[in-house]
C-alpha cells in the first residue's frame, strides 16, 4: 500500500472504532502513535547505537538495552510529547475550565428556578407563555454554561413537568426544551467557539463577535415559531387562568425580574463585553465569570462545600476530555498529513471543480451527518481540520465557515436517531412521554436551523457586521 492509502485506512479505522464505542481521545492517540511509528520508521536512525554496540562486541545485556532504546527512538514519540506540551500550554484553552466552572456553579445555584418562574409570570399574556419563558431561560442558562446536557436536564426537571401540568402538548413542550438547551454552543461566551478558534487559528474574540448576531437570530426564530404555533394551534399551549398564574402587580414583577433575570444577564454581558471591547482576554474574562458565578451562588445562598466540590470535579473532568481530544487530534492529524492523506483529500475535492457555494453545502451536509453519532467536540477537533486547508482554494473565510459550523452543530443534538438532547430529556421525563414524541417535537427546530443558515449565507453581514464595527474590516 502507498502512504496515502495507509492514511485512508487510518481514517477508516478511526471511524470504525468510534462507531464501536471506543473512547475517542485515546483512540486518536493510539492510532496516531501506531501509524506514526510506521510513517517515521527509520531503522538506520533508530538502531544506530545498537549497530555500534554490535561492532564494538558489547555483551548481551548492553545489546538488549540498546535494542530496546532503539525501538523507542522513533520520531513519533517526540511528536506526541511536543503535541501534548503545545496543547497544555495553549493560552487560548485556559478559558475553557474557567467558563466550565462558571456554568457548573451557576447550574447549582437557585437562580434558574426563580428565573423561569419570573419569566412565566412576566409573559403570562403572551401565547405559549410557559414555552416562551422556558426558551428564554434556556437561552440565558445555555449561554452561561455552554453545557447542553446540563441545560436540557435541569430545564427538563423544572419547566417540562410544569408545562405538562399546564396541559401543554408533549411534542410542543419537549421541542422547546431540547432546542433551547443547544443554544449554548453557539451564543458567546461559547466553549465551541474557543475550540474552533484554537483549531482553525482564528481569533476567539472575532469569533465571539461574529457568532453573537447569528445566535440571537436563531433564538429569535425559535421564539417566533413557539409563539406562532401557540397562536395557530391554541390547543398545544392552553392559556393559563388568573388563578394558575397568581395576582402580581407591575412593581412585584419588576422586583422579581431584578432579582432573578438581571443578575445572570449582567454576568453574561459583563463577561462578553469585557471580551468584545478588549477590556480583557477570553481567559481573563472567563476568570471574572467564574468569580461572578461564585458570588451569584453565594448571594442566592446556594454556595455549599458539596456544590463547590462537584463543580470543581466536573470542570476538571470535562477539561481533561477536551485537552486529551486536542492532543489525540493533533497527533492523528500530523501523521495523517505526513502520510499524504490531507493532500489526497485536497486533490480529490479540488478535482471535482465545485463552486464555493457547492463546497459549503457539501461540507455542511457532511458535518450534519457526522452530528448523528458524534459530539461537537469530536467533529471540531477531528473532522473540521480536514476542511480547513480547502477554504483558501474556495476563497471562504474561516470565520464565516466557523459560524456556519456552529449553527449547523445545533442539529447534532436534534437529529434522530442519536439526538442527545432527546435522550437527556427522556431520562428525566415521566413514563408516559415517548421518545418518538420528543423526536417529533424537535423536527421543526431542525428546519429552523437550516433556515437560519440560509439567511446567514444570503446576508453575510449578520456575521461580519459586529466584528467590522468593533475591530474594523
UniProtKB/TrEMBL annotation:
InterPro entries hit by this protein = DctM, TRAP_DctM
Give the way it sits in the membrane.
Multi-pass membrane protein
* The UniProt record lists the keyword Transmembrane: yes
TM ranges: 6-39, 85-106, 132-160, 172-196, 208-232, 253-279, 285-303, 315-339, 354-372, 379-396, 402-425, 445-464
Q: Where in the cell is it found?
A: Cell inner membrane
Which UniProt keyword terms apply here? Cell inner membrane, Cell membrane, Membrane, Transmembrane, Transmembrane helix, Transport
TRAP C4-dicarboxylate transport system permease DctM subunit domain: which residues?
Answer: 12-462
Primary location class: membrane
Protein family membership: Belongs to the TRAP transporter large permease family.
Q: Its quaternary structure? A: The complex comprises the extracytoplasmic solute receptor protein and the two transmembrane proteins.
Q: What is the role of this chain?
A: Part of the tripartite ATP-independent periplasmic (TRAP) transport system.
Query: What is the protein name for this chain?
Result: TRAP transporter large permease protein
Q: Which organism is it from?
A: Mesorhizobium robiniae
